[in-house]
Amino acid sequence: MTANVLKGENIEPGPLGDLQLAQGERVGLRIWRDYTTDQKAERSRPYEIVGYVAKGEITVVIDGHAAELVEGDSFVIPPDTSHSFSIPIRATVIEATSPPASQALS
Q: Is this prediction's pTM over 0.90?
């Protein structure tokens, strides 16, 4: 195994309930699998977020604009942009962050 490969059995849970997938120097990948949550408080992060709804549905609010997203939909949240979300039924969301959220939040 090289430093560029992360095998499934080595995936560790992240601090927010996500699974931390491959993490590069400029981009990080994570997944929320069968995840639900009430409306999260509005916040901003110092990194860009690109997400894809692989299963289920979510509501994302970006800069005050709400969008209902279902399987196959995707979204972008620019750095330092106010956002919140809710996931009322189990959903799987794949997310890439640049720079990696694991570096930006530590």
A: no
